[in-house]
Amino acid sequence: MGALAAAAGKILVAEELAEDVAVIEEAAVLFANANDGAAQAVLDEAVEGAGRGSEQLWRMLFDLLRVTGDKAAFDSRSVRYAQLFEKSPPVWDQAEPAQAGSAPREAAPAVNLSGNLSGNARSQFEQLVRIGAKLGKLRVDLSRLRGIDDAGASLFSETLQSLRQGKVKVAILGAEHALRLIEPMLKVGEPEGRPFWLCALAMLQQIGDEARFEDMAVNFAVTFEESPSSWEPQQDAVSLTDSSSLPLRHEDVPAPVRKGFVMEGVVGGAQPEVLRALSAYASEHQQIEIDASQLKRLEFVSAGALFNQLAQLQSQGKQTMIRAPNEMVAALMRVMGIDQVARIEARKF
């Protein structure tokens, strides 16, 4: 946790401007959630007319175009790069496209939650609050959740409250699905499952369902003999343009090879099988090397889970090297604080 907190805002490179940091973080989060069109729009706008100090943004843009398979755009921007930096542009390497999406520039960046929501997701939600505060709006998709425990319910309701206090505009997709997961724990007259009640109330508040909120508030008061927080007027709506509805592909976990533990393709969701495989590999090595050269995309939630895994390994005195991630993945790793618990070795550009 301490390392993650210390990592906040530390995407720093030589001569990097503060506005570049915001662009890097925004583009990395958009790409992590398959909003490729929006990520490209952010980077294109940032490099347009920028000076030599913007080279990291250019590296991200070129790697994004490689991953999405847009050679025409890659070639057209290569000309501008060569003129600006007076050196040869990067070479197109025929990267296999990851699942690509596109989104209008005005759509809020999306965070997709999947699997079982528990208290172990705290680091991801702290980053969600930080990024929401920076960008001012978020979309949270709950439609792929399979379960919510009491710690996860508390964490989610606390996060929504923090975002509301920070005046962050939040749109929740899949709220009805999440409410159905919680409803069996809401038993009127039985004062148990308080975190689930508060989580359900927080979601109803966030999606603007005042009638159901008031009904549930009455039931809460009857059950716990106290009144919950009152209904608050709804904030301005967030664009629900959903360009990230295509599920990220769950890749098979490759067997460790001579170069180390291989992460490749698209790693989405918490993917416990990936973490179990990494844990098994790490149990046999003091120096852990992760080959990320073929990792096309690392989803937001997966990055948080990876941080937790690597932080645990660091606490055991083990050192981790992540080799050659593309620039979009590397930027997300820094946003999530992974560079505080592992060394990230950039690929040659």
* CATH domain topology of the largest domain: Transcription Regulator spoIIAA
**Tally of helical runs:** 13
- Shape, per Cα inertia axes: globular
What's the rounded overall pLDDT mean? 79
Rounded Rg: 21 Å
Biggest sheet layout: 4 strands, parallel
Q: How many domains in all?
A: 3
CATH superfamily of the largest domain: STAS domain
CATH architectural name of the largest domain: 2-Layer Sandwich
Question: Level of helix content?
Answer: 40-55%
Characterization of this structure:
With 349 residues, the chain is α/β, with parallel strands linked by helices. It has three domains: 2-21 and 28-85, no CATH class; 110-224, 2-Layer Sandwich (Transcription Regulator spoIIAA), CATH 3.30.750.24; 261-345, STAS domain (Transcription Regulator spoIIAA), CATH 3.30.750.24. Helices cover 47% and strands 15% of the residues. The protein is built from 13 helices and seven strands. The chain has a four-stranded parallel sheet with strand order 4-5-6-7. The chain has a three-stranded parallel sheet with strand order 1-2-3. Strand 4 (261-267), helix 11 and strand 5 (287-298) form a beta-alpha-beta unit. Helix 2 (18-32) packs antiparallel against helix 3 (36-47).
